Amino acid sequence: MSMPQSWANYGIDLHLDLAGTRVRAGLEAGLRNAVRSGRLAPGTRLPSSRDLAADLRVARNTVADAYGQLVAEGWLTAMTGAGTWVAERQVAAPRPISPKGALAGELRYDLRAGAPASSAFDRRQWISAARAALSAAPEEVFGYPDPRGLPELRSALAGYLARARGVITSADNVIICAGFAHGLALISQVLAERGAKTVAIEGYGHQSHRSLIAAHGLALAPLPVDPSGARPAEPALHGAGAALLTPAHQFPLGTTLAPRRRTAFVDWAVRSGGLIIEDDYDGEFRYDRQPVGALQALAPEHVVYAGTASKSLAPGLRLGWLALPADLTEAVIAAKERSGTHNSVLDQLTLARLITSGGYDRQIRQARLSYRRRRDRLIAALDRYAPAVRLTGIAAGLHAVAELASGDEGDVVARAAKHGVAVEGLNHYAAIEDDTRPALVIGYGRPAEHAFSTAVSRLCAALAGTAAR
Amino acid sequence: MSMPQSWANYGIDLHLDLAGTRVRAGLEAGLRNAVRSGRLAPGTRLPSSRDLAADLRVARNTVADAYGQLVAEGWLTAMTGAGTWVAERQVAAPRPISPKGALAGELRYDLRAGAPASSAFDRRQWISAARAALSAAPEEVFGYPDPRGLPELRSALAGYLARARGVITSADNVIICAGFAHGLALISQVLAERGAKTVAIEGYGHQSHRSLIAAHGLALAPLPVDPSGARPAEPALHGAGAALLTPAHQFPLGTTLAPRRRTAFVDWAVRSGGLIIEDDYDGEFRYDRQPVGALQALAPEHVVYAGTASKSLAPGLRLGWLALPADLTEAVIAAKERSGTHNSVLDQLTLARLITSGGYDRQIRQARLSYRRRRDRLIAALDRYAPAVRLTGIAAGLHAVAELASGDEGDVVARAAKHGVAVEGLNHYAAIEDDTRPALVIGYGRPAEHAFSTAVSRLCAALAGTAAR
Fold first, then answer.
1. Prior bond to A252 cis, omega within 30?
2. pLDDT, position B195
3. In the structure, how many helices (H) and strands (E) does chain A have?
4. So what's the pLDDT on residue A245?
5. Average pLDDT, chain B
6. Residue A194: CB atoms within 10 Å
7. In Å, how far is A163's CA from the nearest CA of chain B?
8. Could you read off the pLDDT of B106-118 as tens digits, one per residue?
9. Do B144 and A182 touch (CB under 8 A)?
10. What is the predicted ipTM?
11. Does residue A443 contact residue A398 with C-beta atoms inside 8 Å?
């Protein structure tokens, strides 16, 4: 392990094995850490790939590829012909590290999407189920656990998913994981091992999911999204090893994937051997129509169904599940074992108990009712105080999209902040920076019950300001 | 993604991107999965690296390296000049997958090392701490969590580790993980990223730890172990990026690392920039002398201290912690974020409560007393019924080593099985297969209280049989 002098000049403390085959990975990791830790400050211009390659005595493409990857992950920004910089807005903050999604103190009203109301988590019900589950459990379950997750929970989930979401699976192919991100990391790892190069993603979605896929060495190919959901567009799907979709309720646009598109994606998967990753993050929360069943049922051998307790119970449980195609199950278990990760058996026992006792369904019904009421209050308030705003994506979930009649969404976000409201523009979720529709993504799940009305009226004040212009 | 015809002949369903740079990784993963799933049966002879390389149109070294890695991981066996076979004893079983360490029904008495008594986990105390912790917790903790783990728990642990184990750290450098294996996987990943090639390991230890390090592309260099603990031997340490040690109580030999060796390892780390990974898996359980403080305190910037609740509470909690050198913390957090893994906040809140309320110390004192009594009963029984056996490694922990006067340890293990006792020979833990001392590793923690006496007397019967010969 040695550090060439010239690297030290860039302030990068990087131990590179330049003779090995992991030069690119090492280079990426070194740059990533240097940016994350602040050693490479935002706005810093990086040496050209030609210069750096010469300094490191590696192929220029190796450096160019590493730069490209970090641009895809959001650490760097690049302009063709002009150079590469450390991005101004970084994916993760330097220390002190605060919990993901923590807010600055002044923004008391959190209307960002992606999380449920913390107050919706019924602690008493959980503790009572935990006590019952723990007293009944045989001693063996407290030992070193099954790498797939607790059999009791996998059985309970296989039944629940069949009943509630139409998923076709068995306990053997259900794997418990620490939330959707963990499941996505495991699948990305298996895809990379199997030689996949690209994952098609929806043109709007979580930046954190995109970063996670890219961190496993996979390129991202964005699919256009319109009112019928993601478009099975050939340029993006061509040669993709997998497509990550939110069929029931596109995140964040809120549309449902049209039936002909569901079929088209499944046809693509069957034809090409590609994998569909179905992120069913809030499939249980549908208000106006029948729930849309899981796409997985169309082709269980070509779709990974991914569900989570993050919206139905609490993100802090870090409980998610994958229903896997049989021929993927072993590889995902192997990846999970390699990562040494398991969920707490106590939470698994408790959730299994909640599901089999009917408590989980009850909790979802209650939460659905409460979120529906919030949605109706949001609709009514916007109708009255910001009539120029068009609210879409409201049939399901914990968030909606407010399309602005005019103006810049960044201005509205800034104005909302002045009113103490945290909310994000649609652009925040865009995979490609060419969005032209000014819109806000409003998460109505997060605020505590007592703060919801104030949050909405402050948001309306910020929006009314725009409409009036 | 394509599969050359010839691969199909080997029955390996492998999607290989032969043009890419991940050929070796893909080849390894494909072979690993084929062996794991049983598609390549134990005893199957593999094509020579020359033939396979020609079929796949890759360099012969690529195949030879992949074979070598899988031999290191235990999937394959090789004899120089004679060929490569699928190993008879595989690292993991094909499905149906049973929990790690599950026993065949006939072996009712489990004296294998590495796990505590499941009955020692005080469910009532846990539930009561959980209820108290949950009612007191602010709502925010149920949201998406801090990637390091809950601040409350990290603070509690920093205090506890300083007090109980002499560790020098702060809450900022403590990271919560899902048990030791998860921590080791994260560190292995960071080491590989930073260009490390080799990890020195103790000549005796857990095969699962060795496999996990190897699965991250790192070679293993075994250190000899003698009654003074692991020897800081140059051939193994030379060029190693890290050394994995069990200083307080060598696993499984039970010796304590001698002070001059502690210093020698620390000197090596400071001099070479290598990292010491201190696996303090049962440091709390010391019976006859003062506890041996953590080696970490000698050089906090060169040692990762790793602890776990698996022995003190229950493995099923999947709660472990790392106290990291400051310059490693960011990289480990990044690796953890990339893997999408987090612990349940509920268990973290509960453990924090247990620690700050003194319940954790109480639980450890009780468990220590109970394990010490078991150890004393084991010593007395062997003294009386198998006097030819010499018991060592008894000053601490949940296991001891029974050195056999003569005979083959495999025979004794088989005879014990006939008596319904599961126990493992020392060779089971050897990193190099050249062990000549016949010995058993006896884990006295596992059996339920009511079954302990029978387990020991049956073991004695099996051992007495040997001694009589």
1. yes
2. 95
3. 15, 17
4. 98
5. 85
6. 24
7. 25
8. 678 999 998 887 7
9. no
10. 0.73
11. yes
pLDDT > 70? residue B434: no
Tokens encoding A271: 């034809």
pLDDT at A72: 61
Alpha-carbon gap, residue B160 to B166, rounded angstroms = 9
3-state secondary structure of B304: strand
Instruction: Mutate one of A31, A73, A344, A347 to test the B interface: name it (highest B CB count within 10 A).
Output: A344
Arithmetic mean of pLDDT, A212-227: 94
Among partner residues A194, A314, A339, which is closest to B185 by beta-carbon distance? A339
Nearest to B279 by CA among B368, B177, B371: B177
A111 three-state secondary structure: coil
According to DSSP, residue A58 is labeled S
| Tens digit of each residue's pLDDT (9 = 90 or more) over A167-206 | 999 999 999 999 999 999 999 999 999 999 999 999 999 9
Residues B423/B411, Cβ–Cβ less than 8 Å: no
What phi, psi does A222 have (nearest 5°)? -75, 135
**B13 contact residues in A (CB cutoff 8 A):** 327
Q: What is the DSSP string of B412-457?
A: HHHHHHHTTEE-EEGGGGBSSS---S-EEEEE-SSS-GGGHHHHHH
Residue A96: asked if its preceding bond is cis (omega within 30°), the reply is yes
Contacts of B329 in chain A (CB under 8 A): 95
The string of DSSP letters for A356-412 reads HHTHHHHHHHHHHHHHHHHHHHHHHHHHHH-TT-EEES-SBSSEEEEE-SSS-HHHH
CA separation for the pair B409, B414 (Å, rounded): 9
The pLDDT value given to residue B305: 98
The two structure tokens encoding residue B302: 């060169």
Q: What are phi and psi of B435, to 5 degrees?
A: -70, 135
Q: For tokens 């400051």, what's the residue?
A: B326
CB contact under 8 Å between A36 and B342, yes or no, is no
Q: Which residues contact A30 (CB under 8 A, 6 or more apart)?
A: A12, A13, A14, A15, A16, B193, B194
- Please tell me which of the candidates B15, B24, B134 has its beta carbon nearest to residue A123: B134
**Six-digit token string for A175:** 């794997």
Residue-wise pLDDT for B264-314, tens only, equals 999 999 999 999 999 999 888 888 766 678 999 999 999 999 999 998 899
CB distance from A104 to chain B under 8 Å? Answer: no
Q: What is the model's pTM? A: 0.76
Structure tokens at A34: 């240097």
Sign of CA dihedral B362, B365, B371, B373: negative
What stretch of H or E contains A336? Answer: helix A326-339
Whether B448 and B117 have beta carbons less than 8 Å apart is answered as yes
A317 in helix, strand or coil? helix
- Across A287-355, where does the E strand assignment appear? 303-308, 320-323
**Which segments of A166-283 does DSSP mark as H helices, in order?**
180-193, 207-215, 234-237, 259-272
pLDDT confidence of residue B435:
59
Length of chain A equals 469
